[in-house]
Structure formats: structure tokens, C-alpha cells
Amino acid sequence: MSGTDQALTTRRARELLGVAASASPGELRRAFRNKAKSVHPDRDGGDAESFRRLVEAYDLLRGGQPHGGFLHQPPSVQASRRAPEVGALNLTPHLALQGGQAEHQLADGRRLRITVPAGLRSGDRLRAGGEVLTIAVRGDGQVIVRGNDIWITALLDRALLDQGGRACLDTPLGAREVWITRKASARGLIRLAGDGLPARGPHRQGDMFIRLQPASETASSAARTLLRRFAAAWAA
After folding, report:
1. Which of 117, 173, 181, 196 could form a cystine bridge with 149, CB 3.0-4.6 A?
2. At residue 32, does pLDDT exceed 80?
3. Which of 61, 82, 102 is the last residue of a domain?
4. Residues 18, 22, 25, 30, Cα dihedral to 10°
């Protein structure tokens, strides 16, 4: 593929998002969100490469330069000049948040243990074992990663949601004490600024969003126990 084919033009960026040249910032944002729902790697039928190109297009049209999230390890002097093969590396939210060890099987059958830095997002790229791997962060049933942000669900007593008050919630980053207002309860959502994925390269620091849902006393107790175990496993 030539350099011209790889370059993302403004016209092509508008085609990817499905917007006109006169699109406002709000229209660009809405178009990006709608398109991202169908191509995000966390969704069925999603594709990391398509999502990466969509992010590039959005960045270009809102005035930035398309970055694509490339994270390349410098090749050695003896490294082959042959273009590396492209594969995929699936990460749990835990690894995206804190980094750690991930396993990957190369096309030739070899298995690698890769040290993953904290803060990788879907669409980023990492060089390992002679391949360039495209990162895909997958939700694990307890935690969902959306872009820079982490989403979890808290099951709380109905009385607390109705009346408001202070609550101590178990999160992937440990216990967090929050004040639940009636407005937050009505929205069913609390945002903890700065508690999402860490800033890395072109990516900003993310936030944590906690969905608030009512639960019976039995279900609430069981959910709290499960979340405590989950948080403890992450901290281990």
C-alpha cells in the first residue's frame, strides 16, 4: 500500500463519519458516537482497525492530527526491514487499567508473554515478537471500558437511592466514598473524574462511571460481596 493510500484525507474522514463539510462540532461528536457503536472492538462484529480509522477521522475533522495510537518499540539495528505481520492482542479491563503480563500466540505457533504498559486503548498498536499487534480491550462482565472511561454497576438499597446519602462503593481502584444525591439517583449515574484509564500518549486521563441500580437486601448484599472479591482480585 502506498503512502498516499495510507494517508487520511479530510474528504475520506468525512466519508467515514458520514458528515458534511459544514458539520458542527456537535454533529461530528454525534456522528462519531453513532459510528463507534457498530465498529468498536467490544461489540459483536466490531473491528479494531475500523475503530482506529474512525478515531483518526474524528481527530482530523475536529482540528487535531490523526494519531492512530501507535506505540512502537524501536527495532534493533539487525532487525529485518520486512513489514511486520499484523495481529490482535485482547486485553482485559484490568490490564488496560494497570498493565501487567499478557499472553499471545504468534502466527507460527510460538507463544509470547508480553509486558503490557498501563493505559492501552482499543486501536493502539504494540510491537512484540516481530509482529505489530492491534489492541482490543474486552469487557469482562464486571467492568466495561469505553474509550478512556471505565463503567461499572453498583446495586444499592432502594432507600438510599430514594433519600440520598453517603455510600462506600467497591471499585477496580479500591473503595470509593461517594455522596448520592437525588439528582444522581434520578439519572442513575455517578461520575468519578480521573478514575478511568490513565493518560498515555495522545490519550487523556479517563473517568469512572458508576451505574446506580436498586436491589433487594439479599441481592444487594450478594452484589457487594461479589464486588469486594472482584476489587480484591484486581489489587492482588
Report:
1. 196
2. yes
3. 61
4. -30
